[in-house]
Design brief:
Blueprint lengths: L1 H6 L6 H8 L6 H20 L7 H10 L12 H10 L6 H23 L6 H11 L6 H4 L7 H18 L2 H15 L6 H13 L3 H5 L3 H23 L2 H7 L6 H18 L1 H11 L6 H6 L3 H24 L12 H10 L7 H33 L8 H15 L6 E4 L1 H10 L5 E2 L14 H6 L1 E6 L3 H11 L6 E11 L2 E13 L9 H4 L11
Helix pairs in contact: 3-6, 3-20, 4-5, 4-22, 6-7, 6-9, 7-19, 7-20, 9-10, 10-13, 11-18, 15-18, 18-19, 21-22
Length: 531
């Protein structure tokens, strides 16, 4: 049937086939990626209408407001990206939603750069289409954080490494080192990708030619040079980002086995739709898999070793060190397997199948925008989110209004519940700074005396007992403060939704802390409220 369709395609297939004809001409793949970014950005705008951005996205923007070569919780790339984006685009939900999807679009573009090393024509598009049917490039991507930023950096680093290994040119070696360093300042989980590069090069039959050339050493020097500012930051600040990362290593043998099982099952589930479609496309030709694998292109074999390393290394680390291992930490590596499966086939694939998958991807995307997104928005307007995203903008604007009732000066510092504080910094017209130093983010210490003197506010949702007790603790140490409570209500397209109470603590400028300065600046965990 596929062969007959390729010989005499139905009328409705002809526009798709003309589009596939434009792949090697250079316009078909960019068009696909632009359409993907546009339609899924529209999905996010509709699905999260009446709700604020995800706290992780707001945190990335908060970090980026102050340029640094490192931050106390994560490496700096996500903050740099958010800061660069908002220097060009407005501070709004749609802007950062577009940023998240552009990051996913760049990831797909870099994946295509790898695919075109091994195949031409519609097989290149098929790789991208199968990836578009995973949750990594829409739902995972919209939560822009240290994990999502790896969607683009991992395929970029892999492409540069493949080119450096193949050509051994200095220019590609430098590119590989720089791109790998970029992945490392995205998240330290990228150490598994870097190690996989090394192990793959050692396992490849061409290892002698590669390691006796200057290429790997140029890459190493280039990568270390790019990383050096961050390494210097780690050395001079106590490597707190490493400390935060190591906080995930607190399990035992039993919990590690559970983490590994869930890790592998999560990745399998993420690829399940694409895997089923591939089985339908390959059909009885799946029996050729052993022969195709044995005759694999040397470049694909190198990619195979990298792919295996990105799965085996974190699994072994989790088993040995007892670390957490959520599958979402590895979603950025799914492209490796999609490329291997599609590009590793030696038999020709009919364009009939690529057109069918294109239609499926388009139908899923359109159904998401037209049906799923409005339903999601209406449901969340009535039932809310665990983190309270429905109320972010309302709470921020009301706090700012009440602040200006007490003083003519702008609100400059905000704290309290992290999600609300990040949201207030973003949605308030004054755009105050997040006041709690990130190294003390989870210790609930007393604000610094100078912070209170310049003016400061905090807010919590009613029912957050830990936050309310902290407010009581702070107000007992401040000479001048105002404590209030107000109710905010979610709204969607003019329809009222869920209500929630917000407690605010305002210390106007000139307020004084009653404790000695040395105690006021102590954020240590020993001074947190009794729980």
């Amino acid at each position: 049937m596929a062969e007959r369709s390729d010989r005499a395609p139905a009328r409705w297939r002809r526009p798709f086939l003309r589009w596939l004809d434009g792949i090697e001409a250079g316009w078909a793949v960019p068009l696909l990626i632009v359409c993907f970014v546009a339609i899924w950005t529209l999905y996010l705008i509709i699905a999260y209408a009446g709700a604020g951005l995800h706290p992780d996205t707001l945190e990335a923007w908060t970090l980026g407001r102050t340029f640094a070569f490192g931050y106390h919780k994560h490496p700096p790339l996500m903050g740099w990206v958010a800061a660069s984006w908002t220097s060009l685009f407005p501070l709004s939900d749609w802007s950062l939603q577009l940023m998240a999807m552009v990051n996913a679009g760049l990831a797909l573009f870099f994946v295509d750069l790898i695919s075109r090393q091994f195949v031409t024509g519609h097989k290149r598009v098929l790789v991208l289409l199968l990836l578009m049917l995973t949750p990594a490039y829409q739902f995972h991507a919209q939560r822009f954080n240290a994990n999502a930023v790896l969607l683009a950096t991992w395929p970029l680093a892999t492409w540069c490494f493949l080119r450096a290994f193949e050509t051994r040119r200095a220019s590609w070696a430098v590119a590989a080192g720089c791109a790998t360093a970029l992945a490392m300042v995205g998240k330290y989980y990228s150490i598994f990708l870097v190690t996989s590069f090394v192990l793959a090069a050692l396992a490849h039959p061409a290892r002698r030619a590669y390691f006796t050339s200057a290429s790997p050493w140029i890459s190493t020097v280039s990568g270390l040079a790019v990383l050096s500012p961050h390494v210097w930051w780690l050395a001079t600040t106590g490597a707190s980002a490493f400390t935060y990362a190591l906080a995930h290593a607190n399990g035992n043998a039993a919990s590690s086995l559970g983490e590994v099982k869930n890790f592998l099952l999560g990745l399998a589930a993420a690829m399940s739709v694409s895997a089923v479609l591939w089985v339908l496309i390959a059909g009885t030709r799946l029996r050729h898999f052993p022969a195709d694998f044995a005759a694999m292109n040397p470049g694909l074999r190198l990619l195979f070793y990298v792919a295996i390393g990105t799965i085996v290394l974190p699994v072994l680390t989790s088993l040995v060190m007892g670390t957490d291992l959520p599958s979402l930490w590895a979603l950025q590596g799914l492209f490796l397997f999609a490329i291997l499966i599609v590009c590793g086939t030696r038999y020709p694939l009919e364009r009939f199948h690529t057109v069918n998958v294109t239609v499926i991807v388009a139908v899923v995307a359109l159904a998401a925008v037209v049906v799923v997104a409005p339903i999601h928005a209406v449901y969340r307007n009535k039932h809310g989110y665990e983190e309270g995203r429905n109320f972010y903008a309302q709470a921020a604007i009301e706090l700012t209004r009440q602040w200006h009732e007490l003083t003519n000066e702008p609100l400059t510092a905000v704290s309290g519940d992290d999600s609300l504080a990040f949201a207030t910094a973003f949605y308030s017209p004054d755009h105050p700074n997040y006041a709690r130093p990130f190294e003390y983010q989870y210790t609930w210490g007393l604000p610094r005396k100078t912070t209170l003197e310049r003016g400061w506010a905090a807010l919590c949702f009613r029912g957050q007992d830990y936050c309310s007790r902290w407010m009581e603790w702070v107000s007992s140490r401040a000479e001048h403060f105002v404590k209030r409570e107000f109710t905010v209500q979610a709204k969607l397209w003019g329809q009222p939704g869920l209500r929630r109470d917000v407690i605010v603590l305002i210390v106007p400028p000139g307020g004084r802390d009653a404790t000695p300065e040395s105690e006021a600046e102590d954020f240590s965990a020993s001074k947190r409220p009794t729980e």
